[in-house]
Design a protein that fits this description.
The chain has six helices and 103 strands. It is mostly beta strands. It folds into six domains: about 130 residues, no CATH class; about 160 residues, no CATH class; about 150 residues, no CATH class; about 90 residues, no CATH class; about 170 residues, no CATH class; about 120 residues, no CATH class. The protein has a six-stranded antiparallel beta sheet, with no helix packed on it. A six-stranded antiparallel beta sheet has the order 51-50-49-63-62-61, with no helix packed on it. It has a six-stranded antiparallel beta sheet with strand order 70-69-68-78-77-76. A hairpin with a 7-residue loop joins strand 44 and strand 45. The longest helix has 15 residues. The protein is elongated, with a radius of gyration of 55 Å.
């Protein structure tokens, strides 16, 4: 009966077993029932509605599938034609074998009904119904049903043509050849198959074109003759039955590759070795080995090589333990590869290492491939054989995989499948297992004493320790975390628990689990106080115990303290030391316990930035000023003597404020006070404790707004820069500081995607702007000509603590959130790989090929190529380097060098090399000659902006008081070579109008009062290259010696390191301090002869520091020689002359 309550009901039909027992039911779509009323013959139902079909609308002699409760007994409904059409049930015993024409609502799609002993089924055209001839079991007057695109009945009993049929005595025969001898099948379980060609297009359904006159497979059964096709292969024996034995493929074999959709089958004479083929009709699977198809004898899954789609093999087939094989169409995930048990002849002859080790099949819905397993879990694929989706395959390191195992618990497993990089975890929830992408966190594993830890897309199983872990799974309905603790029976048990409001100390240092809001999340906590989600029970004697339980009236919350070393819950004693405050309208006073014992630390004052709590620690108060003890009167009344607000009731309403006390920035949130340690720049108005508004540039330029730079060590105030600077702040705004106007301005917020290869893609045209921002808020330097969604060269720094130097039209010093224009006069040597200041070791280790040199002036920086012979000084790196013959070198000795400290200045500087090879740039030199560490002689003049190399040979007295003799090649073929001139330590030299004393290492220092004694006799040498500057009396003495004594006063040497000079003996040294000059009195010049009379001639002897007796030279009467005749000693004058000459020679070599 139709339920009369109305349309749209779930239970639209009423079924009665008898007159006293009825119930309403929910019918299925497209179902028919015999009506129990007299008004109509049928009831036709959808999911929510049933309608009566009047007998006037019911077709005569029509059949329907019965959907009633008695359908196992009465499978069909038949409506016959009398004076009125009567619909009644047809019992199973009266159903004839064959096919019935369906008259149901969807008969055009399901035109035939076929029945067995259990039920009747409607057959779908093209899927279940092939073109052909069928015996009509429902109408003897039209015993044949012909089907193609649709089905219809006919009374033609004999279509005597090749491809036609003959129906006689309830037997359907097939004309398969030109002899017009029909064949037939008398057993309902036997079929015959013929591969014939039909030329008459009007003979067989679906063969309508003469162009289709080709061989086609036909199936002959007891109740039908149809054009036949399947997806896969079809093996036919010579007697037209199905072949199920081993087959050798050649021209004589009858094996066909068929495509169901096109109803075509092509004969095959070869197969691909090591592939597997399914004959779905005979339910036999085959293994191909050298064109021999061998029936499969191993249970399991195989890739179906008979059903290629393009170059892919998306289908499997399964063979059971009786080796009956069926197709598996909807393939996904992993299957054990039964094909691993089969080896070709070639593989059998190879070593075991070369044999088949691909023990798994992976399918993605579009293709299936065999793969070699590794240690881990795989999701088992579902099929008509294995219908459960909660099964996993585990493979060990011996290339062995266990049979799929159902997972009946909620747990996670590390995914070893092909998608493990994107979805590293398998999550099983009793009914199903799926791979999933994860965030950082921990997951419950099947092993109770271990957890799975995931960070990004990398997951590892870890051994659990007692404590709390952040849960990385879904928290949509409830907030969760993982708790692990020791139990008596086993070492450790980890379980998923629901999070209470508050914080938990995790097993990772400085990481808390925040369960304050509707989800638990992991946070990094450096310095701060947090209200624990755990409570501490107060025992009867008021001592505090650390046992944790659900909060009751006699429990208080614990507190968590975090510092740089980690986080911990307070101990019982520590908790008693937390000051308790009374709070009224942001005014707090400290309350001391009524009974003070030694365990309490009586804190009477707390300062701004500290905290106190209420009595059960459920509420934290933040001190914005000094908080003192609450005062009491003698009568016991309490007085709140706080006149100004000094505290805040900590809560999420203050989350957007930044409170600065000293050099610490505090953040308040629900149940927590923490210091700011996250990387970034903050513009904070110190009056309002608010960040500058991202919509109002005036808030950035407010005089009370200060800029802070924060990192893992805290925050520091940033002084206003001395050059143009770009900043990305916590608001993710690009802010420009203009040093000329001393103001901030907003830049266009262009977002760019940064790739690891220094390429960026902006979301709009840069249009002259060279700064963009990543979605993380990082600042990026990019070409101002880059177009939207095009890739361009760009640079950024990895973090806020690392400075990099990047160049685009100018040089910028950058960190992750700022870029400042380099504006000074100096050089920068940048490692082109790291974009950081090149380390001195990078030059000496031969890695200088990666160094780029930038020269900067106040107007900007440019990339430069180094010049040889010049040392470049890095003010940032504090090193001095020179480029020569493709190699950067650094000075190894102290001295003087030609140094450039910026592109506008190249000059001689004095340098010092320390014991650890560090170079100190001491000072810029004054006028004079300087011999450099590169063995070059330079002359510096203040009026000349540069020092010049000498351009002629000669003697050069340097500002270091050294004398050099230099040979200059005017043709520039040879390098100028200079030789340091030696001097005799202790003797004096007259150089450039001044007396100098020879010291160790031939330094000629100006004579100072230290070496000027009036009574001393000293030797003073007069280098002949300074003859023009000698005192006139010295020049005259030299001339007199040559003229009067026929001799010379000059000491000459053949050694290029020795000067030619005239020595003399002097005394009576006087030093004039006002003009820093020295004077001597001459005693005599070497070889000067003094004659009082012919018998008393004396000659000047350097060795004797004065005159000695002189005798006439026998060979030259005009010449006087020094005498060896000392008092009371007579020596021949010639011998004396020889000795004195020899001594003189030896002294000056």
């Amino acid at each position: 009966y139709i339920n009369g309550l109305g349309k749209g009901l779930t239970n639209a039909l009423i079924i009665c077993e008898d007159s006293t027992k009825c119930k309403s039911i929910s019918p299925k779509e497209n179902t028919q029932y015999v009506s129990s009323t007299n008004e109509s013959g049928l009831i036709n139902c959808s999911n929510t509605e049933c309608i009566s079909i009047p007998f006037t609308s019911v077709s005569p002699n029509s059949y329907y599938i019965n959907s009633g409760n008695d359908k196992s007994i009465n499978q069909l409904i038949f409506c016959n034609e009398y004076s009125n059409i009567i619909c009644k049930y047809v019992s199973s015993s009266k159903i004839n074998p064959g096919y019935y024409m369906n008259s149901g609502k969807y008969a055009s799609f399901y035109p035939l009904i076929t029945c067995n002993r259990e039920k009747c089924n409607a057959l779908k055209i093209k899927d279940d119904i092939f073109p052909g001839f069928y015996i009509n079991a429902g109408d003897d007057s039209k015993p044949i049903i012909i089907c193609d695109e649709s089905c219809y009945t006919t009374n033609v009993l004999d279509l005597q043509k090749k491809g036609g049929y003959k129906y006689s005595n309830s037997i359907l025969g097939f004309y398969y050849n030109d002899t017009i001898t029909p064949t037939n099948v008398t057993s309902p379980t036997t079929n015959l198959f013929f591969n014939i060609e039909i030329n008459d297009k009007n003979t067989f359904p679906s063969i309508n074109s003469i162009n289709e006159s080709k061989k086609t497979i036909f199936k002959v059964s007891k109740y039908s003759i149809t054009r036949y096709s399947v997806d896969g292969i079809l093996s036919i024996s010579s007697d037209h039955y199905l072949a199920t034995n081993e087959i050798t493929l050649d021209e004589n074999s009858e094996v066909y590759s068929c495509i169901k959709k096109s109803m075509t089958c092509n004969k095959i004479t070869s197969c691909i070795t090591n592939e597997f083929y399914l004959d779905v009709t005979s339910e036999v699977g085959y293994y191909c080995n050298s064109n021999i198809l061998k029936p499969l004898t191993n249970e399991g899954y195989y890739i179906d090589g008979s059903r290629y789609v393009g170059k892919n093999t998306p289908y499997l087939f399964y063979c059971n333990n009786e080796f009956k094989c069926t197709s598996v169409n909807d393939t996904n995930q992993y299957y054990l590869n039964a094909g691993i048990n089969y080896l070709s002849k070639t593989q059998i002859n190879l070593s075991s290492l070369e044999k088949n080790n691909k023990n798994l099949i992976y399918c993605n819905g579009k293709n299936c491939n065999t793969i070699t397993s590794s240690i881990g879990y795989y999701i088992a694929g579902v099929s008509h054989v294995d219908i459960y989706s909660n099964r996993l395959i585990y493979c060990n390191d011996n290339n062995f995989c266990n049979a799929p195992r159902p997972i009946s618990i909620v747990a996670s497993f590390i995914n070893n499948g092909i998608d493990s990089h994107q979805k590293p975890l398998i999550h099983c929830n009793i009914n199903t297992c799926i791979t999933q992408s994860v965030t950082t966190g921990y997951f419950i594993s099947e092993n109770k004493n271990s957890l799975i830890h995931c960070e990004g897309n990398s997951c590892n199983e870890i051994k659990a320790t007692s404590g709390y872990y952040y849960y990385g799974g879904s928290q949509k309905s409830k907030k969760y975390l993982i708790k692990c603790e020791n139990e008596v029976s086993i070492d450790m048990v980890c379980e998923l628990i629901e999070g209470e409001k508050g914080f938990y100390v995790s097993t990772t240092s400085n990481v808390l689990i925040d369960c304050v809001e509707n989800k638990c999340k992991s946070i990094i906590a450096k310095n701060g106080v947090f209200r624990s989600a755990n409570t501490v029970k107060l025992s009867s004697n008021s001592k505090r115990s650390l046992s944790r339980f659900v909060r009751r009236a006699n429990s208080i919350y614990n507190l968590i303290i975090c510092n740089q070393e980690g986080c911990h819950e307070l101990s019982s004693e520590e908790l008693t030391q937390v000051p308790i405050c009374n709070y009224i309208d942001d005014k707090c006073t400290i309350v001391l316990p009524s009974s003070t014992s030694s365990i309490y630390n009586q804190i009477t004052t707390i300062n701004a930035g500290d905290y106190c709590t209420n009595t059960d620690h459920s509420q934290i108060y933040f001190a914005t000023g000094s908080i003192s003890v609450k005062q009491s009167t003698r009568s016991g009344e309490t007085l709140l003597d706080v006149t100004s607000k000094n505290c805040l009731k900590v809560g999420k309403q203050y989350n957007s404020y930044y409170y600065i006390y000293g050099d610490i920035i505090y953040k308040l949130n629900e149940h927590s006070i923490s210091q700011v340690f996250s990387d970034g720049y903050l513009f904070i108005n110190t009056n309002t404790a608010m960040l500058a508004s991202s919509d109002d540039i005036n808030s950035y330029n407010n005089e009370k707004t200060k800029l802070y730079k924060c990192n893992e060590n805290g925050c520091t105030i940033v002084k206003k820069p001395d050059s143009t600077m770009y900043i990305t702040d916590i608001n993710k705004k690009i802010i420009k500081y203009d040093v000329t106007t001393d103001s901030y301005s907003f830049m266009k917020d262009i977002t760019c995607i940064y790739n690891n290869n220094n390429k960026c893609t902006p979301n709009t045209n840069m249009d002259g702007q060279s700064i963009c921002i990543t979605y993380k808020g990082e600042i990026v330097l990019i070409s101002d000509e880059t177009q939207s969604y095009e890739s361009g060269e760009c640079y950024k720094s990895s973090n806020i603590n690392t400075n990099t130097y990047n160049y685009y039209k100018n040089l910028y010093i950058m960190n992750s959130n700022s870029a400042q224009l380099v504006k000074d006069a100096s050089y920068y040597f940048i490692n082109s790989i790291t974009n950081t200041i090149a380390n001195y070791k990078e030059f000496i280790n031969g890695k200088n090929y990666s160094v780029i040199m930038y020269g900067c002036l106040m107007s900007g920086c440019n990339k430069l190529e180094p010049e040889e012979d010049i040392y470049y000084y890095s003010t940032v790196g504090k090193y001095l380097i020179k480029y020569e013959k493709g190699i950067w070198t650094s000075p190894q000795t102290s001295g003087y060098a030609l140094v450039s400290i910026n592109p506008n200045e190249v000059y001689i500087y004095k340098i010092s090399v320390t014991y650890d090879n560090k170079v100190i740039l001491e000072n810029k030199v004054s006028d004079g000659f300087y011999y450099t560490i590169d063995e070059e002689m330079y002359e510096c003049k203040n009026q000349n902006p540069v020092c010049e190399k000498i351009s002629e040979s000669g003697y050069y007295f340097t500002e270091t008081n050294e004398m050099y003799y230099c040979l200059y090649d005017s043709e520039h073929i040879e390098k100028t070579v200079c030789y340091k001139q030696t001097c005799i330590p202790g003797q004096y030299y007259f150089i450039e109008y001044r007396y100098h004393r020879c010291e160790k290492n031939s330094y000629l220092n100006p004579v100072s009062p230290l070496y000027c004694f009036p009574k001393d006799k000293v030797i003073i040498n007069f280098p002949i290259m300074y003859k023009d500057s000698m005192p006139s009396y010295i020049r005259k003495a030299i001339d007199n010696i040559e003229n009067n004594n026929n001799s010379t006063a000059i000491i000459k040497s053949n050694n290029i390191n020795n000067m030619n000079y005239v020595p003399g003996i002097f005394t009576n040294c006087t030093y004039n301090q006002e003009d820093d000059t020295t004077k001597f009195d001459l005693i005599c010049i070497s070889n000067f002869v003094e004659v009082k009379d012919k018998k008393d001639a004396k000659i000047c002897s350097i060795e004797n520091l004065g005159f000695i007796h002189c005798e006439e030279d026998k060979d030259n009467s005009e010449k006087c020689n020094a005498s060896f005749a000392y008092p009371l000693i007579s020596i021949h004058i010639t011998t004396y002359t020889i000795i004195i000459i020899l001594v003189t020679y030896l002294l000056f070599q």
